[in-house]
Amino acid sequence: MAIHSSFKRDWLSNPKNEFLAGLVVALALIPEAIGFSIIAGVDPRVGLYASFSIAVIISLIGGRPGMISAATAAVAVLVVPLVRDHGTEYLFAATILMGIFQCIAALLRLDLLMRFVSRSVITGFVNALAILIFMAQLPMLTGENMTVTTYAMIAAGLAMIYGLPRVTKAVPAPLVAIILIAAVSIYFKLDVTTVGDTGALPDSPPWFHIPQIPVTWETLQIIAPYSLAMAAVGLLESLLTASIVDDMTETRSNKKRETYGQGIANFVTGFIGGMGGCAMIGQSVINIKSGGRRRLSTFVAGVMLLILIVALGKWVAQIPMPALVAVMIFVSVSTFRWQSFTEITHHPWPSNLVMLATVIMVVVTHDLSIGVLTGVLLSGIFFAWKVRQLLIFEHYIDGRTHHYVFGGQIFFASADLMYEAMEFNEDAVDTVIIDVHDAHFWDISATGMLDKITQRLQAEGKKVEIIGLNEASASLVDKYGEHEKPFHSLGTTGH
């Protein structure tokens, strides 16, 4: 019963909107897939076949309904040296191995690492991608082929995309804009750049193809580094995009299933002459904004992409690029999180710095992984510093006994504060009691600092007692401490 309900929801819920949304995405995928193929240095069909394959497979087994996955620039830029030095067949093999690595990542539950990506990093990631999407349209806005006609088409496209929803939402506005602008361009034979000008469209569907490479250890050494980088970047972008689509649709996704889905999709794609890919935030936003929420829209996007390039390639090639540029500008504006400007005024400065650093690194390097890793690293540093400041300390002397009371988290970033709080070489003190009843020890840096304090005090001839260790901290101290046992007690306050 549950399976039937899930099938009905994913495939039969609002089929008209899902189909039309998928068609819009398919049209937007064509020039991008060709462009990514050019970036990688391969024939356009490699990117187009990959986009078809990945979209269809991920629609069936992915963990985020409504999200679009296809060939992407993030993966394409990684394989440029591989294609240049070894050829396209090695790219196919690397894509297959990429899929295997991603399936291993799913088995190891590496998707759980997404929990360490802060909201500030995700906001920076989204804003950076919106900027990159807009920057990708600049050649059309400022290139040599730029004419008054091109400007007029882009303006007309944006007017329809933003204006039509105020009249009716029966059909996706981007689809209407593409069809009407294409019809006008073809009828009046306007001199503008078309989809066909970006690259040749294939005239046949993909077939099963085993990469023609030597199956040797040397080959594995060549493709493995590329496959690992492709797998990591692909999963990073896919899981971040899944989180963004979760927020847009106010639904949840299965990150583990999505990781498996990405792996299987890339594995299969390598056997049909396609390049590696991952989730695409731009096309995912187009899909969501056009009414696509379920698996059907992603499936339609993949299938219609193949139909459009193979059966209707003659007509698709005549679609003017300004129409698609208008759609992508709309995507860029819709993707950018404009409220982040106002949030800067009341969010903590570390969160703002993390967001801005993520944006800057992604835009400057055009590498999503570098930007996200920079944001995650800064988030970790700021978090550690904040927790370090929460260490509580007080002390008092009772006769010839000096009591120290610590509370908070003691780990690599705060252990030195514990040492700095201690007073050594006190002639009037015979016994030192360190009360950690309200503290928790997290790592070997904490236990090592406790050893250092204890050993120095004992070297001065003082008796040292550690009291109040909770069970977890005591276990860590007993396992990694270098002191002579027993010298501590559990769960007592000592005063």
Protein model, in words:
There is one protein chain. It contains 22 helices and seven strands. The mean pLDDT is 87. The N and C termini lie far apart (62 Å). The chain has helices at residues 2-11, 15-40, 44-61, 73-76, 80-86, 88-107, 119-142, 148-167, 173-188, 195-198, 217-249, 255-269, 281-289, 295-310, 313-316, 321-335, 340-343, 349-365, 368-389, 415-421, 444-459, 471-480, and strands at 69-71, 277-279, 392-398, 401-410, 431-441, 463-469, 488-490. With 495 residues, the chain is α/β, with parallel strands linked by helices. It has two domains: 2-343, no CATH class; 390-490, STAS domain (Transcription Regulator spoIIAA, 2-Layer Sandwich). The longest helix has 33 residues, at 217-249. Helix content is 64%, strand content 9%. It is elongated and about 100 Å long.
Shape descriptor reads elongated
Largest sheet: 5 strands, mixed
Helix content: 55-70%
Unreliably modeled segments: none
Number of strands: 7
Q: How many domains?
A: 2
Structural class comes to: alpha/beta
Alpha carbon gap, first and last residue: 62 Å
β content, as a range?
5-15%
Query: How many distinct helices?
Result: 22
Q: For the CA atoms, what is the radius of gyration?
A: 29 Å
The chain-level mean pLDDT equals 87
Sequence of strands across the biggest β-sheet: 3-4-5-6-7
**Helix and strand succession?**
HHHEHHHHHHHHHEHHHHHHHEEHEHEHE
